[in-house]
Amino acid sequence: MNAKNLPWDMEVDVLVIGAGGCGLTAAIAAHDEGAQVAIVEKRDQPGGNTSLSTGSIPGAGSRFQKVAQIQDSPEVMMADLARVAGSHDLSDVSDMLARISAELCEWLVDCVPARMSLITDYCHVGHTVPRLHAPASRRGQDLMDDLLAGVQRRDIPLAVGNPVQSLLTSPQGEVIGALIGGKGVESTRIKAQKVILACNGFAANRDLVKEFCPEIAGAEYFGALGSQGEAVQWGRELGAGFANMAAYQGYAAVAYPHGSLLSWTTLEKGGILVNADGERFGNEDLGYSGYARMVLAQHREVFAIFDDRIKAIADKEDEFRELVDLGGIKSASTVAELASLFKLPADALTRTLDTYNQAAAGKVKDTFVRSKFGLAPLQSTYWICRVTPGLFHTQGGLAIDTSAHVLKRDGSRIPNLFAGGGAAGGVSGKSGAMGYASGNGLLTAIGLGYLGGRAAAKELKEALGRQP
Fold first, then answer.
1. Is residue 310 predicted with pLDDT exceeding 60?
2. What CA–CA distance (Å, rounded) separates 177 from 137?
3. Which of 60, 247, 301, 309 is packed most tightly, with the most Cβ within 10 A?
4. Nearest to 124 by CA among 294, 263, 248
5. How far apart (Å, rounded) are the C-alpha atoms in residues 30 and 38?
6. Secondary structure letter of residue 269 according to DSSP
């Protein structure tokens, strides 16, 4: 809305809206470039989808890869992302994120600082070499804790429980601040020379999901509760363009009824998914995001099956061990016992495992053309987990350029406005979930926060330098 001639309650150089990984990164990056920064968050605590993630960020050519003697480069990562996602609205942004990915991971460790290391156990979905950097726990909350500590160390103001009602604009259409207010919150007008939207996507808004991502609209949402799509609303009011709005990240194996993620390591290393008839129904190589709609299409119970050797690898992850401790994963020494745990037809399950194991051993071609079998053929002891598909976050949003400036429908910039994370368009393809590579969510959250925060602060310095 146009700002009226009313007094401002507060003035800052850069206002960051949203206190997830994107917002905290943007605030730290802008602060370290000399800007006065403040963060507002509508929820009662920071976090967003970053807290719910594994905290994994791809970095191509990082010094951590070099120590591990892993050959990689931004060009290889660009090719990997393009192969998975295909051509889409923000291919230039995808390339930029690949180019700065190593710098980003090193900056997180050196400057925030964040406790992260390179995952060398295996290549993740969509990547041809190990390049994901993550907390040892594989918990996004640990990354959030480090970012929060970085914000506190820099004395950057962070106000939780302060929802933004609208962006404020000048008569010329420049974004010049935001109106804060809501139930139990006194209305506050914050003037800002630059505004960074880091307020997540729209996956918790069922109407917007039905509008833009109808194929996954029937899946349960497991992401951050704050993903209500305010950026879409504000963008429409400002005449912003949108990018890749039909793309999303799903997860094919949310443990049911526990609600925690069954580590996809269990499938990548050779496990399978079967339906209530004890039969496989697709190629698990598609990955946890792309496979989610196929699990949803079963319209009934689905189960992940793997063996003791695979479990030993997944046991390295905290969330997986907690799921085991909660009884969410059960074991059996024979296929018949395995089937009886969830009343699956033993004969069908035996045939399924026999056929799959023959394919994994190279004796026959896999029915669903799976080519990566990990440690399979599967062998006793077996493990089984009941799973359900989930929608985790949308991968579409405001159109942006390679510095995270928000663009109008004609491609010109909306003055002073930046976006990252779920508020901005993502790099996982134009539609659906097949274009999602592991780490894409945090790549656009942390990466665009880094780019946008630095760009906003540098533009302010340049403008100050031009003043007489």
1. yes
2. 38
3. 247
4. 263
5. 10
6. T
- Among 163, 189, 170, which residue's Cα sits nearest to residue 3? 170
- Please identify which residue in the block is written with the tokens 């990240």: 249
What confidence tens digit (pLDDT) does each residue in 229-288 have? 999 999 999 999 999 999 999 999 999 999 888 999 999 999 999 999 999 999 999 989
Contact 25, 451 (CB under 8 A): no
The H-assigned helical ranges of 333-417 are 335-341, 346-360
Instruction: Specify the pairing of strand 10-17 against strand 185-197.
Output: parallel
Which of 172, 54, 193, 28 has the alpha carbon at shortest distance from 111? 28
Cα(352)–Cα(325) distance, integer angstroms:
28
Residue 110: pLDDT over 50: yes
Q: What is the mean pLDDT of residues 80-88?
A: 97
Say if residue 174 is exposed, middle or buried (CB neighbours under 10 Å; 0-12, 13-18, 19+): middle
What band does 1 get if pLDDT is binned at 50, 70 and 90?
Answer: low
Angle, alpha carbons 262-64-265 (nearest 5°)? 15
Cα–Cα distance between 394 and 276 in angstroms, integer?
A: 29
**60: which 2 tokens?**
């191509």
How many angstroms separate the CA atoms of 204 and 226, rounded? 7
Query: Facing residues of 398 across strands?
Result: 242, 424
Identify the DSSP state of 259: -
Q: Rounded to whole angstroms, how far apart are CA atoms 466 and 468?
A: 6
